[in-house]
Amino acid sequence: MIETHFQKELEELKENLLKMAALVEEAIRGAVQSLVKRDSQLAKKTFKREVRINAMEIGIEDTCLKLLALRQPMAADLRFITSAMKIITDLERMGDQAVNIAERAISLNQEPQLKPYIDIPRMAEVTQSMVKDVLHAFVNHDSKLARSVCERDDLVDGLNDQIFRELLTYMMSDPKTIAREVHLMIVSRCLERIADHATNIAEDVIFMIDALVIKHHADEKKTDR
Amino acid sequence: MESTVLRIENFSAVFGQNQVLKGINLSIPRNKITAIMGPSGCGKTTLIRCINRMHELIPDAKVSGKIFLDDEDIYATDPIIVRRQVGMVFQKPNPFPMMSIYNNVIAGYNLNGISLAQNEKDRVVEESLRKAALWDEVKGALHRRGTFLSGGQQQRLCIARALAMQPDVLLLDEPTSALDPKSSSRIEELIVELKDAVTIVLVTHNTGQAARVSDYTTFLYLGELIEFGLSGNMFTAPKEKMTEEYLTGKFG
Q: How far apart, in whole angstroms, are the C-alpha atoms of residue A31 and residue A23?
């Protein structure tokens, strides 16, 4: 089969999305590492990555609008492009969350470490696996993998609750440490938000592949298709 | 619940050895626009020609299966009556070249030997031209020849001629493929306005046009009906893989 110009443009769009996603992954990893390794220089790199992520979002959005206007895509191509537009919004917000984590890391690194970080790195690990897998699912049209990403969101929510409770007990036992605990709670919350964005992307990927709406339990409510 | 105006049951058509339609089952909803799309040679034109019994005018052509118009078997009805109830407009505008605009619109009555009083004729002509969104442009030139009009106007004249007989169903066979973009969008607007008055079956290989104007879409491929459904679903998330491939330009 001959590859059309349009197919080449779609391929380019896909590659750019992957580049943006790789940048987001790096930003999250760097931000979490800067906290765990107490390395504020590493934290500052996250800010530069975020600028690039934002620029990519604008560039990809522009490409999508042009493709919609000029190619009038239908069916799978239409779902791919509209999904791409939603995916970049979630990716960009993940970048913002990585910056939030890096900012908290810089503040925390100026004070003695409150406790060894155990659950936050674990949470970061699950969250990063979600980000990585959801893009893998997107590229390889793997809706099963996308569904597994949605399932992992519960694990991250559970860890977030656990971290919250643990930090609360620390606060009560020693109010002088409250500022540090609040920073850590925010880091935990940022990771939880990143996992939510990954779940949003997973839902878009499932729609793109199977033309099935699973978010907000739409499949249980709506049956008129 | 939508009512069905045309019911096509296990319908096949052949030209000599060549089977053009293979066991089509399709119900066309009343006062809706149903688009029939598919690559060249898929049988879409043959299907609508069968609906007003034009297909059998070709030597060697045979059909099997049934088509019901409001529960009347059209193959058990006089074809002249069928064609009165099911109007057709073709790809290329074909007003009768020697006739005035007025006589073109009223031609169906004259050819069928139905005589109308002059004021009745005037009313039919005005009403039909208004429905076809042509009245304002031609009301001062009703006795000029139809062929003086632009291509888009000629096509609207043909639509007016078909509407004059007050058909239940209007078949449009790629009605805009010979027209410029502006005239095409005029006709598309008209098609949407007409559906309150008449059920429309639109053959098009312009998928964009099918998406813009139709309520339902049928996808035919090599004489088989692959998918029928609401256009809103068909063009975003078709059920059949083949429809998906056709719409994304993988074949056809």
A: 12
